[in-house]
Amino acid sequence: MNPTVKKRIDLQASLQQLKIHKGSTANFSTREDNSRDLLGKFHKDRSVWIRDRRRVLQCLSYQFPCALQLKQWGILKDVKCSLCEKYYKERNIPEPPDSVESVGHIQCYCPALQLPRIAIHHGTWRELMFSIRKSSNELNDASEPRWHFPSALSPEAHAE
Amino acid sequence: MEYMGLHEIPPSGAGKNRAKLRKDIEEYHIAYAIDFDDSDIDTFMPETGVRGSLHTNQFLTRLESLGVKNTNTREAIRNRTVQKTLSMSDMILKFFFIALNSKTDWTLQNLPTAIVNKNMERFNLHLQPPRL
User: Fold this and answer.
1) What is d(CA A95, CA A87) in angstroms, rounded to the nearest whole number?
2) pTM, whole model, 2 decimals?
3) ipTM score of complex
4) Do B55 and A82 count as a contact with CB atoms less than 8 A apart?
């Protein structure tokens, strides 16, 4: 069979299948404005490491083994973030009661991972700047197509 | 665009969109239950030069206002940013497990340097001192 025809049939079949499912992954996949096109491009991109693609799939399908998920599977009883617990204990700070260990918490809120998060943000930001510098034809005041990157500021200035 | 310093000079077109940005920032603050302060606009302005949801055309429009006129290039930059962001999400989840099995101070101090160095080497980028 022609690969293009096969691909179209596969796409139609997967769209039909999606209507049957009612789980949280299907809910996410059918949600409006969920950037499915961008996710599709990401998964099709052969330059991306397979483990990165697998990790994204794992998160989208609610399979990442964090405490919240392990509790749902009946493996753990507590959903508290173990890293937060460790972090606050080391600093003798009272722990906030709502630190649930979920993928969202780990990626966006966990205080122990604040600096890695900032570093990752800066890395992505710099790559974006690098791409713009390479492709932009806008000129500066001296009529030169020259860009300057921001230098790193103190960690205090970038605390979340 | 002489100097794209964070908290320094807003990017091209940022002034025109000030009202829109103000609204965006207010919505962001409401969504995350953060007290809104007017000075936030100035802090956010340089970053929002190209920031915005990657799935909307706003991102592409802002790239155009920054001088990236070729449509394919804009699309390529967007895809690359998505790729990078999603790849990094794998990294932070892995660091979570590393941090669980090590001292949190090590995570706070050493890992960010490791990530930054990796990014810098890969794209041959080096930190520049601010222009005075």
Assistant:
1) 9
2) 0.64
3) 0.75
4) no
